[in-house]
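Here is one chain, start to finish.
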Amino acid sequence: MTIEEYLHQLGPRGEGLRLYHKQNIAAFDRAQGSGHNHQAWPGGYRDHLTQCLQIAGSLYDLLCSRYGHLPFGFDSVVVAVYLHDWEKQEKYGNPDGGKGSEIDKHVFLNCTLPGQFGFELTEEELEAVRFAHGEGGEYRKDGRAMGRLAGFVHSVDVLSARVLHDLGAGGRFGGSP
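Its structure:
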């Protein structure tokens, strides 16, 4: 499935996110997935998110079939995965490399998306986007910083960025490492 097909699955709730996507498609398609670590080719951002969503769909289905209903819906997975690397679109997708524009994910998620596009994230989705790359300095040995959705999104990102990152070369996702 494509990113657009996953966003379509969000139904009426996803209308604002689909509008945002449509308005920013040029930067979205131009951006690379990272500076050099994974999917670091023009269009690699799309490849990374497509791969993440496909991994997420497979993993969600597998875990549900094995362990029963998960405590979060797949729509929340789609939202968090789609937005987890939003700043890369700004940094790598704009002709000026994002220079001169303040890249502030918090403002984008909490103000721009709801204010300009009518799309609000749940607290659980915000947390999943925040911790998509791990707990970092917020790790505590006596408690969890990231919840279950965040842990799921983190695992999907790690699988794409660290395990399957170069499978796009001349293959399913295009581009070259």
